[in-house]
Specification:
The protein contains three helices and nine strands; from the N terminus they run ββαβαββαββββ. The chain is an alpha+beta fold and 147 residues long. It folds into two domains: 64 residues, Ribosomal protein L9, N-terminal domain (Ribosomal Protein L9, domain 1, 3-Layer(aba) Sandwich); 78 residues, Roll (Ribosomal Protein L9, domain 2). A six-stranded mixed sheet has the order 6-8-9-4-5-7. Strands 2-1-3 form a three-stranded antiparallel sheet, covered by helices on one side.
Length: 147
Amino acid sequence: MKVILLENVNSIGKKGDVKEVSEGHARNFLLPKKLAAIATKAAVVQAETKKKNEAEEEKIHVDLIRKEAGKLRGEKVEIRSKGKDGKLFGSVGAKDIIEKLKEKGFEIKEKDLMLKSPIKKAGEYEIEVIFESNIKSGISVIITEEK
């Protein structure tokens, strides 16, 4: 029996795929759990159209991310923190950096900022930013000591 998958199903396929499955598996598992629908000609055409539209939307989304990463590349962020002799009294973390980037108009998620540990010394640091779809960019973070 041919079915159109409405959700990703392990060992069968991804959402939107048209697959041939046994009639028992379709009637007892896939259809009752609304994981698939019977593949009529109209449904297949509709599924293919939907899949094409989703692919186009994904391409547009990735292009927007690439543009944002391009704008961000080489951006310098300066953060002042209290310290003495190059050592900070606290530390500068991802939230502090993201806050400064927001002030400059960038929307970055904390999980995208590849900061291994909080910064505890004054200086200049190169930090990698990895967006969705593995698109990479980098920023310079300059920590200056405030007395």
